[in-house]
Each structure stands twice: as structure tokens, then as C-alpha cells.
Amino acid sequence: MIFNFSHLLHSKTIYLWSFLWCCCWGVVAQQEVGDDVESDFTSQLWFDFDPSWQLAAHQKVRGNFGYRTINPKSWHRVIFKGTFERDYDKLFFKRFKHKETLLFGNAFFILTKKDDYGSFEIRPYQGYSMSFNLTNRIVLGQTVRVEERFVFSGNPDNKVFGMRLRYQVKAVINLEGLWFGEDEGFYVPIAVEGFFNLVRASEFNDVIRVTPGLGYQFNAGFKIEGSLAYHYSKEELDKLTRTNDIVFRFRIIKTIK
Questions:
Q1: How far is C-alpha 39 from the geometric centre of its chain's CA atoms?
Q2: Whose CB has fewer CB within 10 Å in the chain, the N or C terminal residue?
Q3: Terminal CA-CA length for the chain
Q4: Can you list the domains of the chain with their CATH numbers?
Q5: Whole-model pTM?
Q6: Which long-range contacts (CB under 8 A, 24 or more apart) does 90-96 make?
Q7: By the 8 A CB rule, do 117 and 153 touch?
Q8: In the prediction, which pLDDT does 237 show?
Q9: What is the pLDDT of residue 201?
């Protein structure tokens, strides 16, 4: 009997995605329903510049400089983020070819609002990711991250400290070299991410993000990427407010050697 490994891997992938979708939508379905619930539907626009620097073998620093706003324009948000990453070929899992990464970083968020209190947030985080090739052109990755949120605001209902767990599954379909030269061409990223509050913060309490996108790689060190995402969040201050957001995001990704 011939063992078809590719068929088994494909089946496991389908089961993994199905399980993830059930878990994430289960999180959404279990939200409270009551008379004090308000729902809102918005569109947001995000711009990001993501440089990275290779420090040494298996060590990298990533930066993020971002701007985000909402329509209608009731707030603006500026982001500065830095992450140190250390790659390992085999850290916890030894029996198959993959890449594991430990990451540590800090982020700063400056929020200004038109008719309400602004805020300044400091957000250190720690995480672990693992990725491997499903096929020659499809990479599947998972990332788990813990964030400690310190939010400073003049709002009398503000909670200074929050903490949450994030879990993301992301697939990237690489089309580089298919119609273009080597290391050049399109790629398709698709991600689903769930958020789980350990200590609820006063603002931006995400529940789930679903992010399909399309990117183009000019060379191994330079990419541009656009995505159209759905974000669901839940706020609980005076009353429960649910927000459904359509997020248009544009990223410039540059590796600096």
C-alpha cells in the first residue's frame, strides 16, 4: 500500500481551518444579548510602513509606523512598534521541517478623538510563532501572543491596565516567479485572528479579525500589500457596544540589510 502524505497533509489542513472558523465564530456567537446592546458599522483606513533589519543569523528587528482613522472621522490613531525576533529551526517540535520564532516587543498608540477623550497606550508583548510549507507555494503559520495594555486617558471610566491573548492562523500563497522573474510577483495572504481578554481594557477590545489580501513582491527585500478585512469588537463602558468594521489597509514592507 502506498502512503499518500500530500493527501493526508491536505486533509489535515482542511480540518484545521474548519476547526479555527468554528472556534472564532463561536466566540462571536457567545456574546451577550440584551436591551443595553448597541451595534455600529464603520469603515476604517490603515496605512503602515514596516521596515526590518537583519541583526545576525536568525535575529531580526521589525518596526511598524502606522496611521489609522475611521469614517466618519471621529478619531485618529498613530502607532509606533518595535519587535525583536529570534528564529529556530527546531525549538519545541523536532520531527518535521519548519521554522519557530520567539518574539518580544513594545508598541505605543496615540489616539485623538473629535468629541471625546483621547488616550496614550503602552503595549509590551511576547509571542511564539511556527510556520511550515504545505506545498512549494503555500506557507501556513500560527502565532500566539500575550499583550499587556497600559492605557492612560482623562476619561473617568478608564481602566489603566488590560491584558489579552491573541491567536492567529495565516496562510500565504506565493506566486513569485510564476509569471515574473525570480523573487518577483504576486502573493495572497489570508489570516484569521481571535482575541481573548484576560483583563479587559477600556477601549479597542477586539474579538475577531478576518483578513484576506493581495500583495506584490518586487524583490526579496521589498513588498507592497493591500487587504480588505472584517473586524468585530466589543466595548463595555456605560453599555455594551458591538462594532463591525470593514478595514482597508495598505502596507509597505521593506527589509534593510
A1: 23
A2: N
A3: 50
A4: 5-30+42-256 (2.40.128)
A5: 0.81
A6: 93/130, 96/132
A7: yes
A8: 57
A9: 86
